[in-house]
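In response to the reviewer comment on reproducibility (Comment 2.3), we provide here a single inverse folding case reported in full, input and output, so that an independent group could reproduce the run without further information from us. The structure tokens appear first.
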């Protein structure tokens, strides 16, 4: 689904969200209350400029609208793979964005992520995965790494990884596998405005991803290992 169609279904034709390049931002009214929206579109590659644009919007939100909820609209191919961005410190810019979102949560802003198209790699880690909760549309595409790239990194045969992906969500791309692992809380279907209403009302303030992954059978050991580490600390 393109961002214009999504915004119209959520907030009406006069939604107030604007596009600057691949950067989306705006202030909308939802159920009579203000809501800030930032995000990306066109499978955006997150470079230094785009990361800092989003971070600036989060900082402005905290400065001028304390406590206002924030919706992140996510469509990204991951970090910008370009020498210029590497030299300018893309790692620090993306870390800065993540820290801004974390600070917003700590200051009482409800932060909700929605993957409406594509979410890959570092662009997803520093957006939806830092939110209080990350949801997705059923047709969205989410993955960290394609199987050929995973085979090169792990030195395992691609055929073995393909076989493992049939039974283990950790090795498999796809939005429903991320639901099983707890990375995505739920899928929005039907009335999207009602789905947003429910999501804002039920978004947790603690990290439940490992526990949900265990309950759904997608990440069977993360929660128990975390408890062992905490008990030993």
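Designed residues, in position order:
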């Amino acid at each position: 689904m393109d961002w214009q169609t999504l915004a119209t279904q959520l907030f009406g034709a006069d939604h107030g969200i604007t596009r600057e390049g691949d950067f989306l931002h705006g202030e909308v009214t939802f159920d009579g209350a203000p809501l800030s929206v930032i995000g990306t579109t066109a499978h955006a590659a997150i470079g230094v400029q785009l990361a800092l644009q989003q971070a600036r919007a989060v900082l402005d939100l905290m400065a001028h609208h304390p406590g206002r909820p924030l919706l992140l609209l996510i469509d990204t191919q991951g970090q910008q793979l370009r020498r210029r961005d590497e030299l300018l410190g893309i790692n620090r810019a993306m870390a800065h964005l993540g820290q801004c979102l974390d600070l917003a949560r700590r200051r009482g802003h409800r932060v909700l992520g929605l993957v409406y198209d594509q979410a890959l790699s570092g662009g997803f880690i520093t957006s939806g995965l830092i939110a209080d909760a990350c949801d997705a549309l059923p047709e969205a595409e989410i993955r960290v790494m394609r199987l050929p790239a995973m085979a090169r990194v792990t030195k395992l045969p691609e055929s073995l990884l393909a076989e493992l992906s049939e039974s283990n969500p950790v090795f498999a791309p796809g939005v429903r596998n991320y639901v099983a692992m707890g990375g995505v809380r739920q899928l929005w279907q039907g009335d999207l405005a009602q789905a947003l209403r429910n999501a804002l009302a039920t978004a947790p303030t603690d990290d439940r991803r490992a526990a949900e992954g265990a309950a759904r059978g997608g990440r069977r050991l993360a929660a128990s290992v975390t408890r062992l580490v905490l008990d030993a600390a």
